[in-house]
Amino acid sequence: MKIVLDAMGGDFGPAPNVEAAVQTAREFGYEIVLVGRQELVRPLLVQHNTANLHLPIVHASEVIEMHEHPAQAVKTKKNSSMVMGMQLVKNGDADAFVTMGNTGGALAAALFNLGRIRGIHRPALAAAYPTMKGWSLLLDVGANTDVKPDYLVQFALMGSIYAEKVMNVRNPRVALISNGEEETKGSQIVQDAHPLLKAAPINFTGNAEGRDLPAGNADVFVTDGFTGNVILKLSEGMKTMVEDLLRNAFMSSAQGKVAGLLSRDIIRGAMKKRLDYEEVGGAPLLGVDGVVIIGHGRSKARAIRSAMLRAAEAVDRGVVDAIEKGLEALPKTSTSESRVPSAN
User: Fold this and answer.
1) b/e map 57-69, b = 16+ CB within 10 Å
2) Of 277, 297, 323, which residue constitutes the final position of a domain?
3) Interatomic CA distance for residues 194 and 125, integer angstroms
4) What is the CATH number of the domain that holds 1?
5) pTM of the entire predicted model
6) What is the four-CA torsion angle of 90, 94, 99, 103, rounded to 10 degrees?
7) Is the domain of 136 the same as that of 101?
């Protein structure tokens, strides 16, 4: 297994990336290719015991920063860690690419260098979503703000395949996010997608409302990238709000402080079990012709290690080939898209 890691990606620079690469190479025997500025990466690498580990450095003089316009940066920064890393996968010199960097930049770099799986209209970014029953998959969460009905069908197929092969869910339940359970509810695009999803070779369970996500009433939730991103960011904000409310409640009185001390470890343990994004690591970019995992910018070494494990699982279990074969079973529709979309 040979995984390319964007050593420059994330809010904390190359240090956590190097640490995660060493840990993963030592624990699993993978070859982790660190792509980034050699003068920054090498001094960090020599601080670790790397005997018998495969940790080559590929020098990339440029970095796609978080504030840059993704498509423009990818086009102008040919020597960036993202572009050079994607090229290694495209050329068959590596099996997967992992980054904690600019999400839009990763999407653009993947589209321009790896391209889409033949037949895929648009790739989708899929995020693991914490529920009362474990984890569900939510897609799209930001790659496509505007969609067509058959895009949603392809998202559903890709999400179902990933959930089965990587998340180990047998016959995943797939639901379409709407503002009501009835087939007649939702936008025109949602209503048009509903019969297509019923005819698709997936375990489609119908429409789902927002409350069905935290309840875990499906294994895969499908929506457009605008709605999915709002759901994701709203959920992150709600998590912070609940934590602050609990903290303020416990600190408001002497009794509260005692109760907080007694229950702190229980609450932390329960929330960590359900909401620990570091265990998930990153979101797969499904639909591009290669395995790409995009993590959160604030990721530390543990989360980056998890992202590389998700990449290895996707490679081992043939997710890209499975999506390509799965497309053959989809009923043909009139909507097609040959143009590579711009990444914003």
Assistant:
1) bbebebbbeeebb
2) 277
3) 21
4) 3.40.718.10
5) 0.86
6) 20
7) no
- Assess whether 137 and 97 both reside in one domain: no
For residue 186 the two structure tokens come to 């939702």
pLDDT higher than threshold 70 for residue 15: yes
Strand order in the sheet with 134-139: 57-59, 31-36, 2-6, 96-99, 291-295, 282-286, 124-131, 134-139, 220-222, 173-177, 203-208
Residues 114 and 137 in one domain: no
By CB atoms closer than 10 A (0-12, 13-18, 19+), residue 14 is buried
pLDDT at 77 (0 to 100):
92
More confident of the two residues 134 and 293 = 293
The helix (run of H) or strand (run of E) holding residue 27 is helix 14-28
Residues 232 and 144 in one domain: yes
Q: Look up residue 329 and give its amino acid.
A: A
What DSSP state is assigned to residue 340?
P
Quote the domain boundaries for residue 40.
1-121+287-344
Cα(215)–Cα(107) distance, integer angstroms:
30
CA distance 200 to 220: 14
Among 253, 277, 301, give the residue marking a domain's end: 277
